[in-house]
Every structure is written in C-alpha cells, then in structure tokens.
Write a structure and sequence with these properties.
Blueprint (H helix, E strand, L loop, with lengths): L1 E2 L9 E2 L14 E2 L13 E4 L13 E5 L3 H10 L5 E5 L13 E4 L3 E5 L2 E4 L4 E3 L2 E4 L3 E2 L23 H11 L9 H12 L7 H16 L1 H12 L8
Parallel strand pairs: 4-11, 5-6, 5-11, 6-7
Antiparallel strand pairs: 1-2, 3-12, 8-9, 9-10
Helix pairs in contact: 4-5
Length: 236
C-alpha cells in the first residue's frame, strides 16, 4: 500500500499490511441531479458540499433542493442574510417552525429557465442561486479495480439466486427511512450473522432528536450547539 500526507510535498511511503480499513465516509462525492435547462441558467448553482457562509448570498433569492439535514441547516443559515429562501422537496410539508423568509415548496425541480426554476407542480420561482442538498454517492475509486466485491475472500454467505430475487422484490416495495430503519438494521444484522444490532437506547436518542427536529428545528440546532460547540455547524 502506498500512502502519504497530502499536505506535504513528496511525502510517499509504501508498506505491506495484512488488513486495511477504508474509512472513506459517504460525504465526499456530491450527487448532482440532472435537470433540463441547467446550462442556460444565468444564476449560480452549487452543491451543499461547497456551501460555506451565508454572507455570500446576502440579498439574494435562493432555492434549496432537498430538506434533510444539509437542506434544513443551510436554509436556516441562509435566512440570516438572503432575501428569501425556497426550501423545495418532494416529501410532505415540514411542520417545524421556519423563519419568515423561508418558504416551503413540496415539489422538486422540473426544469430551468435563464432566471428561474420551474417546479414539478408547474410553479415558476425567480431565483438568483440554487443549492443542491441532494446527498452523496459512494465512491471507492481509491481502490484498485475489481478489489471490492461482495463475498470475495470474506465470511459472508450469499443466499441462492431465487432468495436474492425475492428479497430484492420485497425491499423495492418499501422505503427505508427514519421510522423503519431500525427494523432494516436488525435485518442486516441477522443476514450478516456476525454483527450485533444497535442497542435500543440508540433508537430512543434518535426518536427524541427527531421529535424536537419536527416541531422546532431552530431549538434542535441550539441543543446540538450547546452539546457539541460551534464546530458542529462548520459545513465543509
């Protein structure tokens, strides 16, 4: 394995290891949606991974696509400086308290015009900037091609093809989210045969957090800030 400190010039080392753990995370390769007309949009388009400071958008009308962790956090941050923030998402209307200049739209983007975005419900929003809070893709390009394969020289035993097709068909009929992910995690634990499911206290913490999050996101942010400090809101 060859590695080095990218902050230092020519810092290259090569060693042999029996095992290597890749702690890459899944928040490094942005997932960009494909939306008609984006190339003709005269405003600014960026992914949430590039968002830093709300002052850059002072006086602007900004559309944020996606209303999960990054989308909500960025929208609240923008509301301090932006003229208006459209929080666009396909889910049900969020019941949490929002600042007056954040406007929810429960619709995704259909297409761009030079100075606006047209939503899937037909509404047209005149905006200066669009921020995609649309998540990330898993990226294992750092590994040699063909190295990462399920079951290769591992202890996991795959079901037969008929059983795998049955599981795929069943899973495609449900959406894994905050409410039912605990059942999903337990299933994965049972399938693997050699890992433990998360302890029940983790679900209690999660449920408490989302109870506050759903009622008053600003209060939830304050609790996290007090518990972890200002660095917890450094979006990098």
């Amino acid at each position: 394995m060859t590695y080095g400190d990218i902050r230092k010039k020519n810092d290259i080392h090569t060693e042999e290891f029996g095992d290597v753990i890749m702690c890459l995370g899944n928040c490094s390769t942005p997932n960009y949606p494909t939306i008609d007309g984006e190339q003709n949009f005269e405003g600014f388009v960026l992914h949430s991974i590039r968002y830093r400071h709300p002052e850059c958008f002072a006086g602007q009308t900004v559309a944020v696509l996606g209303a999960h962790y990054s989308g909500l956090d960025i929208s609240f941050d923008l509301s301090k400086c932006a003229k208006k923030v459209y929080l666009c998402h396909r889910g049900p209307k969020l019941e949490t308290c929002l600042p007056e200049n954040i406007v929810q739209r429960t619709s995704g983007f259909q297409r761009y015009t030079p100075f606006s975005v047209v939503l899937e419900n037909g509404e047209e929003l005149s905006v200066d900037t669009v921020i995609y809070a649309t998540g990330y893709k898993y990226n294992f390009s750092i590994l040699p091609e063909g190295l990462l394969k399920v079951g290769k020289e591992g202890s996991a035993k795959l079901p037969d093809q008929e059983e795998m097709n049955r599981i795929i068909s069943k899973d495609s009929e449900r959406v894994i989210g905050g409410d039912n992910q605990w059942e999903w995690i337990k299933e994965l634990s049972d399938i693997s045969g050699n890992s433990k499911a998360l302890p029940p206290v983790m679900k209690k913490i999660w449920d408490y957090h989302f109870d506050i999050w759903g009622k008053d996101f600003a209060k939830c942010r304050l609790l996290v800030y007090k518990a972890t400090g200002p660095d917890s809101f450094a979006l990098v």
